[in-house]
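Handout, section 4.2: multi-component inputs.
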Amino acid sequence: MSKLKIIGFDADDTLWENGLYFRQAEQEFAVLLRHYIDPDSLHDKLYAVEMKNMPTYGYGAMAYTLSLIETALDVTQSDLDPEIIERILGLGRDILTHPVELLPDVESVLPILQSRYRLIIVTKGDILDQERKLGKSGLLPYFHHIEIVSEKHEDNYKDLLRRLDIEPAEFMMVGNSLKSDVLPVLNIGGQAVHVPAASIWEHEQCEKPPMPYYEIDRLGKLLNVLA
Amino acid sequence: MSKLKIIGFDADDTLWENGLYFRQAEQEFAVLLRHYIDPDSLHDKLYAVEMKNMPTYGYGAMAYTLSLIETALDVTQSDLDPEIIERILGLGRDILTHPVELLPDVESVLPILQSRYRLIIVTKGDILDQERKLGKSGLLPYFHHIEIVSEKHEDNYKDLLRRLDIEPAEFMMVGNSLKSDVLPVLNIGGQAVHVPAASIWEHEQCEKPPMPYYEIDRLGKLLNVLA
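Output:
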């Protein structure tokens, strides 16, 4: 690890809870529409709408809220009580204003690593939302800066390393998504550490990469990886 | 100008049309709600909702769409035809998928400047939307990278210059907003060029800065400023 200079951390579901709030919102969404559709069918419809909208809306709670509204219109065949729309706007707002809940070990590991490496956040989604969460988290002092990317594909990482002016071997990415945090980084010659989250959104599911990478069940074990 | 190294360009309404599409959407929004409220009162209500939502939603077409829906619910006292919601979702999607229309001189000026300075885009809003517009614009080859910031305050510019590793005097910002592109940059010791757009959103209005800055009526005159 002597070459390692910069460690990139995914944020949502790596440093703090996130997907949980979306799942809670979806449960409430299913209750709102219970007279029209069962939760499993609603889930499938919502996911299809989200994927259709992904190229236009991208990631984050605002994109999600718009997809919830579109799904509700579809499911109710436009026989939709405006009260439900109001409640959906509230679900989105709840996600955006939720207190930040740090994941285990985050507060103990970052100060140790900060003295040895430059730490950055590499996240996709909504910049205002990510900055607000970082501010609320109290983790700001540990990070040199936040990189917000529209996608975490190989090209985005290549571009990032070029701007950071470092070689792939000098970079390690830590995150909960094999698809976004591990595979593309391995593919460009960087190192990666997978810290699986309690559950993962379908969109982030992928096969295990064939190249070597680290897998740890909690962030504290990152210190062993780097020892 | 011998010290100048990096020129930052605002994107929306500096390099390409943007506000125009929001104003067109608002006109259609007023037509949709014409049986409930007159356009001027609707405008005031929408602006109030946007400002209330700004800390949570930030800038961009998705934030705007959510505020349109909230305003429609408010104006109709929740007696809202779901068809109108569907149309509002369409208005937001139209903004996000609109072809990029470059402003005058952009295509002639950038290649000249690119040979002398490092050019970057400094914009606030939605990263996916900004990257997509840059892609569609054909301007990608002229820019070293895009900086997406949640706000364009002095601290955001200070942070940007720190990451670019340059002094304020080595940076010039070019944009259509005195509040976002000119004043904060002057305040931290940088240079700024104001290129007023055809119209400006209330939120971006501000007094003329008391410090010296350049004002040009079209981007081509940036070459005279830099001569």
